[in-house]
Specification:
about 150 residues; mainly beta
Length: about 150
Amino acid sequence: MDDSVIVQGEFIPADKQPTTQKEQEEGRQHTRFSLRESNHQDIRFACDGVTVSLVKKYCLMSKTIGIANIKDIGLGGVGLISRCNLQPKQTIFICLDEEYFQIQVMRVAKINHRLNFIGARWIKQDERQISYITNKVYNMSRLPQV
């Protein structure tokens, strides 16, 4: 018969295991990287993240509809806080350093009577472009504030 194999390793109790973003609950296929300095701080008062413009594009024109602060980002999409009243399935652009990236709003949750948390996915599935914007935003969030 086969002898049982005992592998030495670290045991981590279930209640002490590291947690990832709620990707399974929210139907995400990719992990999102938080730009928050502290997840314990109330999100209404968090001044961390990267600020971007929200833009609607029409034929040859574009109109800024507001600003948002990116709180998490990943290959699947982006999570932002904004005063804009957006609707699920709405398509808009985020503008960062004069570059536009199209997103589709997937969910909107009220934080208070003024702020909304918006979960969106990237429209264009070009892996290079998504990696580019993800790295750019992540690196910008790590720059010292002036």
